Amino acid sequence: MTQGTARSGGRGLPVPEELRNNGVVKNVGEARETPAGAPQEELATGERSTRNRVARSILDHGPSTVAELAERLGLTQAAVRRHLDALAGDGVVEAREQRVYGARTRGRPAKAFALTDYGRDAFDQSYDKLAADALRWIADREGGNEAIAAFARARIAAQAGAYREAVEAATPEERTEALAKALSADGYAATARSAPHPQKGEQLCQHHCPVAHVAEQFPQLCEAETEFFAELLGTHVQRLATIAHGDGVCTTFIPKISHNASASTAGRNPA
Question: Residue 26: is its pLDDT beyond 90?
């Protein structure tokens, strides 16, 4: 329900999910040479694993030079540079001038590699717990479920501008598709398709939900989104499934657009 999407790892680079699953990194040496005849899939998996170790080492120890990473991980400096080039190309790390304290020696200072905001976000964070704790505090202090519902509606309203602009620029027949494209631009991986017979209408499918774990505890987030879709499209809509409820996709049924339809009958989230 919020923005956020994982980048695809080009050239076998790690994506956030791979980094999150990295866990505690074993600081063991890697073979200096690639075994002859190793299966391609095995080599690719090894590359990703080592790349994750490089990123994790920077997370644990802060900005690091090639020499420091090579010594720490038991790799050659050439191998470290290759992995850093790949990580930098994927936006996970960036090179910075290393700070020098005291008298500066001759020659250019070695570059230190640091995680970018994107790279840091790829590791486990406590954002879901923080959001759930904040909503629970609102519920306890400000009026229970009604306070959560009010917050959810206000949150949707704050994000509504781009969606409203996209939908209002489309013809009635293209509004669901326009909404799907606007949602995809915000990381929801949304698609629009014709609803199965005998339903007359379309299905809006959101294949990604950045706040699914929070919405499991606070279905008001899904309900506010459903109400917003109804108001935006000018017709009753029905939420058929949600990722937060354990379904694979958030699916909303949108009947054939009727200009006389009332948005006040928005379907409720099944969770």
Answer: no
Is 183 within 8 Å of 206 (Cβ atoms)?
yes
* Domain, as residue range, for 80: 10-121
Taking the CA atoms of 85, 87, 88 and 94 in sequence, report the sign of the dihedral they define: negative
CATH of the domain at 226: 3.30.1380
| Preceding omega of 198 cis (within 30 degrees of 0) | yes
Q: What is the pTM of this model?
A: 0.60
Which whole-number Å values give the CA distances from 93 to 25, 49, 86, 89, 258, in the listed order? 18, 16, 9, 8, 50
How confident is the model over 104-126, as pLDDT tens digits?
Answer: 556 566 789 998 888 887 776 67
| CB-based contact 119:92 (threshold 8 Å) | yes
Number of domains the chain contains: 2
Do 134 and 205 have their domain in common? yes
pLDDT tens digits along 153-174: 999 999 999 999 999 999 999 9
